[in-house]
Design a protein that fits this description.
The chain has 275 residues and is an alpha/beta fold. It contains 9 helices and 7 strands. It has a single domain, classed as 3-Layer(aba) Sandwich (Rossmann fold), CATH 3.40.50.720. Bound molecules: nicotinamide-adenine-dinucleotide and 2-acetamido-2-deoxy-beta-D-glucopyranose. 2-acetamido-2-deoxy-beta-D-glucopyranose (NAG) binds next to helix 2. Keywords: Oxidoreductase.
């Protein structure tokens, strides 16, 4: 079992499925004390809570599940009115949208996808930053040679945005999705410039997952579609990633182990973008 790398309070959006679910499990195993979860799918949140209780951890986190639609400003207000302290935030909520080339995409679909992947994530980051700015600077809790080193490596908070390898490279019939993920990467860089420096000390990074085995990448019968098989083989590792592999990457970026990494888009894709 991992040592306590992420003590404190964490918020995970999109926590009711796939990557968000795995992030909740990884944070719990890594020592988080309070876990706020949110998703539009309330039964998904219940399943995540049950999965964490079933781990039978010696000191499980206190879990508060707050279901709602991240695209709604009213819900964002309600969500953050229930959170008074926050050390880590992992923004996983997102949708893939329809497979269509630009000329066939409706304005409604463009707005729906961006209201979740970009605008919804932005509304969360804004509130997460406001909470983290109120925190004291916490020294790096794991091994260092001196107290000074622990202080230099300290942080007030850490935000991880789940972007995509498709924020870096293009894909057929996915232009609005790829653009929404490029927006997340760009926002991450600019926010990192504003908030990583003293006196703020909040690191903001993205993860760019490759093709991960989650409900997003399976069709109705839970099978991987023919179209996706080609995409999987673009990655030199010739397999899908597991949600736990993205979750471990996200926990690393939350923890002080990544104390000099900010504004980065960490690619965890089995080599997809190098090929
Ligand atoms: N699976 C992949 O191959 C892959 C690859 C790269 C990036 N990603 C990204 O990872 C993130 C998680 O994806 P996943 O694969 O776990 O998918 P998933 O569909 O399993 O989980 C996404 C979760 O987001 C929630 N959600 C959707 N719309 C919402 C809204 N309006 N308000 C609140 N919650 C909402 C869903 O209910 C769901 O629980 C997404 O941002 C996705 O774009 C996934
Ligand atoms: C909501 O979550 C439940 C439990 O994990 C799942 O069975 C169901 O398919 C999800 N619904 C949607 C619309 O994603």
């Amino acid at each position: 079992m991992a040592h306590k790398r992420v003590e404190g309070a964490a918020l995970v959006t999109g926590a009711g499925s796939g990557i968000g679910h795995a992030v909740c499990v990884a944070l719990s195993v890594s020592g988080v004390n309070t876990l706020y979860t949110t998703d539009i799918n309330a039964s998904g949140l219940e399943a995540t809570e049950t999965a964490i209780l079933n781990l039978k951890l010696p000191s499980p986190p206190t879990i508060k599940s707050i279901p709602g639609d991240i695209a709604s400003p009213e819900f964002i207000t309600e969500l953050f009115s229930q959170i008074s302290f926050l050390d880590y935030a992992i923004n996983c909520a997102g949708v893939l949208g329809e497979n269509k080339p630009t000329a066939e995409v409706s304005l409604g679909e463009f707005d729906r996808l961006n209201s979740i992947n970009y605008r919804g994530l932005w509304m969360c980051v804004k509130e997460e930053l406001k909470l983290m700015l109120k925190n004291d600077l916490r020294p790096y809790p794991s091994f260092t040679l001196s107290e000074q080193e622990a202080r230099i490596r300290g942080q007030r908070g850490s935000i991880v945005n789940i972007a995509s390898q498709l924020g870096i490279v293009g894909k057929t019939q996915a232009s609005i999705y790829t653009a929404s993920k490029a927006a997340v990467l760009s926002m991450t860089r600019s926010d990192a410039i504003d908030y990583s420096k003293p006196p703020h000390h909040i690191r903001i990074n993205s993860v760019c997952p490759g093709i991960i085995a989650t409900p997003m990448t399976s069709d109705e019968n839970g099978e991987v579609s023919e179209r996706l098989k080609n995409a999987i083989n673009i990655a030199p590792m010739e397999r899908m990633g597991l949600p736990s592999e993205i979750a471990d990457t996200a926990v690393f970026l939350c923890s002080g182990e990544s104390s000099f990494i900010t504004g980065h888009g960490l690619v965890a894709d089995g080599g997809y973008v190098i090929n």
